[in-house]
Amino acid sequence: MSDTHIIDRVKEKFGSLVTDSHNFRGDQTVTVKNESTIELFKFLRDDPEMAFDFLMDLTAVDYLKKKAQRFEVVYHLYSTKNNSRFRVKIPVDEKDCQVESLTSLWRTVNWYEREVWDLYGIKFRGHPNLSRILLYEGFKGHPLRKDYPINKRQPLIGPLN
Length: 161
Known about the structure:
7 strands; 5-stranded mixed beta sheet; Beta Polymerase, domain 2; alpha/beta
């Protein structure tokens, strides 16, 4: 098996979706277009050769004024069968700030998607309950965005009864 066997398989099956890829110290990564990604993740999970049965983490990056697409949603997958890791990055435009939800594939992604929504404001289409998870409902804005004002005053929440 080559050092890029996962990348090669993904490109073979979803070549038109892949915009970039790299392998650094055995860490294989693909960047894909923000369209029809649910099929890619189904393949990564269900294909016996891939068998990425565990979504370890989902996070986001804000590249304010550094890249054409302001945000990137990053998925970290792990195959318990193959003891391998794989990363998928999806660039997200600030104007249409959303990606597909993966809650139908991995139940635990529910919490990760809510966290990214709460802190970055990236929406997940098809999420069953996209609501704040770390901050209170009255909180204004998304504090991990690079343009979030550090001295911004938030509405106070009253005493909890």
